[in-house]
Amino acid sequence: IVNPYTVYNMGFQLSYLVAFSILLCDYLFQADKPIKRMVQVTLLATLVSLPITLEIYHKFGVIFILTNLFF
């Protein structure tokens, strides 16, 4: 059974927003090294999710960027 209120769930919004932005901006990531591409995708995901994260939690952790690189 599909819940129509799922679109108001923050996890749903962040997942689809970040996935859509990575697919949309994939042509920008033409890095020759995998580490460089990983950093680019991490920064893009962080910047795209920043408005929703700030709206919900009213704060942003800097360690978030580092943990996204490794996990």
User: Any idea what the radius of gyration is?
Assistant: 14 Å
SSE pattern: HHH
Oligomer: single chain
What's the total helix number? 3
Mean pLDDT: 83
Report the end-to-end length measured between terminal Cα atoms.
Answer: 32 Å
Fraction in helix: 55-70%
Structural class: mainly alpha
Our estimate of the beta-strand percent is under 5%
Q: Care to count the β-strands? A: 0
The low-confidence runs, each spanning 5 or more residues with pLDDT under 50, are: none
Tell me, briefly, the overall form. globular
How many strands, which pairing sense, and closed or not: the largest β-sheet? none
Protein architecture, described:
This protein has three helices and no strands. The chain starts with 9 loop residues before the first helix and ends with a helix. It is mostly helical and 71 residues long. The radius of gyration is 14 Å and the shape is globular. The protein is 66% helix and 0% strand.
Q: Topology, pairings included?
A:
Layout: H1 10-24, H2 34-57, H3 63-70
Q: Which features does this protein show?
A:
globular; mainly alpha; single chain; 71 residues
Quick recap of the structure?
By secondary structure, the chain is mostly helical. Helices cover 66% and strands 0% of the residues. Helix 1 packs antiparallel against helix 2 and helix 2 (34-57) packs across helix 3 (63-70).
